[in-house]
Request: fold
Amino acid sequence: RDYYASRGLGDVYKRQLFPGRASDPQRTFLTLRILLFRGAERYHFMEKLPPVEKIYEAWSAVADGRVAIDEAARKATVVSSDRTREYIVGWSDDGSVYNSNDNATYWRGYAGYPVIAVMMMQGRLPLDRLEAERYADVNWKKINTEYHNNYSAALAEIEAVRDIDTRLITEAADRVMARLSELPVTVRRGPLRPPR
Reply:
């Protein structure tokens, strides 16, 4: 994760205002206010990024055909990997805000795999269908429970059992994460509570 991406916008702007020379504090303050005002309406990046393993869970959802999108209603339904739950993903008119009632989005505040899968299907995130197919028919609920939600251990187990060469897959997942971190999108709880 990029160090500067995790810092406050003020810190970034302060470093970029007048590189290489000292500046007048009043001028710095004024410039900072202008930059923050200009940027406030345009940029709403995710405050918290998901664990990279959620990309793999999203690939499974896409490969399994568990994502149904209704663009007119700005709503999608994503069926869980064990086929016992349905999650509802919604988005604003301009696509700047997504919401979902999956546990990760609702309780943890980062984009859960249903949100990521929908964004892949909408073309907002990279989707390599060949890579996605490698993770088809994985019961993530079951394996994550077996590994006590140690997502990286669960993923390693799946890749070992399926004899997946992880080098290229990791690069594909990194591309998705990089794009996700750049998207001017806010993620919020959905209006419905997570299904039990």
About this structure: The longest strand covers residues 86-91.
